[in-house]
Amino acid sequence: MNLGLVYAESIIFGFGLVSTILLMPLFIKIMKKSGIVGVDVHKREHPTVPEMGGIAIIIGLMISIVTAFFIIPEKAALLISFLATALITGIIVVVDDLKTLSAKMKPFLLLFAGLPILIMRTYDPFPVLPLVGPTRLTIVYLSSYP
Question: What's the chain's Rg over C-alpha atoms?
Fold first, then answer.
């Protein structure tokens, strides 16, 4: 086990976690003031709760990735493709929150979120899955390309 990598990953995770924890209450206030709330149908009282808290999570993820750029710059391509995928997904989810996308449109748009990973070739076509072992998913990756 590479202890230096464990420390680096802990620092990266810590930056993202702390920034998300600090940003979430701010985004809750902003969403409440902006009237971007929804009804929590899973509670008996059906209280209104702020929506789009995921923006704080995406910002925390961005902070983690920027931190990772400085700590492990040799992983830049992987980090860029991951960040681009997360941002595209986040944008689609925000659009869905503001203007409900159809049941067919959202999965179609989410196909484009995987494009950075495919274009930059930062995927592993032979992942090792727990309890299954080595697999070959090249055909799955290529068939998901629009």
Answer: 18
Cα distance between residue 46 and residue 61, in whole Å: 30
Using CA atoms, how far apart are residues 144 and 141, in angstroms rounded to an integer?
Answer: 5
Burial label, 117 (beta-carbon count in 10 A; 0-12, 13-18, 19+): middle
SS3 121: coil
What pLDDT digit, counting tens, does each position of 75-86 carry? 999 999 999 999
Phi then psi for residue 121, to 5 deg, are: 50, 50
Residue with tokens 């995770």: 13
> Is pTM beyond 0.90 here?
no
60: nearest Cα among 28, 87, 99: 87
